[in-house]
Amino acid sequence: MNHDPLFAPLQLGTIQMPNRIIMAPLTRMRGGAGNVPTALNAKCYEQPASAGLIIAGGTAVSHQGQGYPGAPGIYTEDQINGWRPGTDAVHSKVGE
Q1: Which domain holds residue 74?
Q2: H helix intervals, the chain
Q3: Which residues does the chain have with pLDDT short of 70?
Q4: Sorted alphabetically, which InterPro entries does this protein's record hold (predicted)?
Q5: Which helix (DSSP H) or strand (DSSP E) does residue 15 occupy?
């Protein structure tokens, strides 16, 4: 058994984290046409899914908030649907 506190569970408000590893927000310019997240975006979040908490970053919440080309957004239906494979992949890894 590992006694390193980094791998100990942590209650953070209403979030029960399996460990104390937090993935910081990332800025990725991997959005597809219409700034819709792609399979590559999903893979970028699926790979570190064993982190205790993943903070998504670099996501535009409106057309006016689009800070740079290729940043995936979350302000259209296509974009929201584009994020689903990534969030589903992360959620499926919880508890592994």
Answers
A1: 22-95
A2: 39-46, 77-93
A3: 1-2, 95-96
A4: Aldolase_TIM, OxRdtase_FMN_N, Oye-like
A5: strand 15-17
